[in-house]
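re the bet — no i am not wrong, look at it urself. input seq straight from the record:
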Amino acid sequence: MDVRFPIFIDLTDNNCTIIGGGEYAAACADMLLGFGAKVTVISPVINARLAELEEQKRIRYIPRKFFRGDCANAYLCIAATDSEQINIAVSVECKSRGIPVNVKAPSAYGTFRLPAAVICEDVTVAAYSEEINQHALENLRANLKEELPNMWQNAKDAASN
């Protein structure tokens, strides 16, 4: 069992770089934006969701392949391509610079994993499991999103009594 230590970092106005333009990259961009990050996506092509974010000027899109040095100014980086070779190259660069890196595949090359996260007021709840499939984790996130406001209000009410 691979147990990981949860850590919460401030991404507000920090540069986060995503290498890749598919579904995983789009999901990561949405998550990072939700936490206030400045997101740069580098990929020869991007999917419709990333194109929408770029059109809304919510992300910076650089339409080209990955080059060594692309992660140099990143607070954290995500290697989200379909090429394990490119993802490993991103990982090697980030690790040599001390930049946290999430790697789509092979995930063992990453230094952190992205959780399913829910925010309610000033409370963030995050869940992650190596053992559970993404669909089940997304169902858990949806349930937390629905129930967390009530749970948080009950906790505040109990604390004030």
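see?? Residues 116-160 form one domain. told u. also Residues 134-160 form the longest helix (27 residues). so pay up
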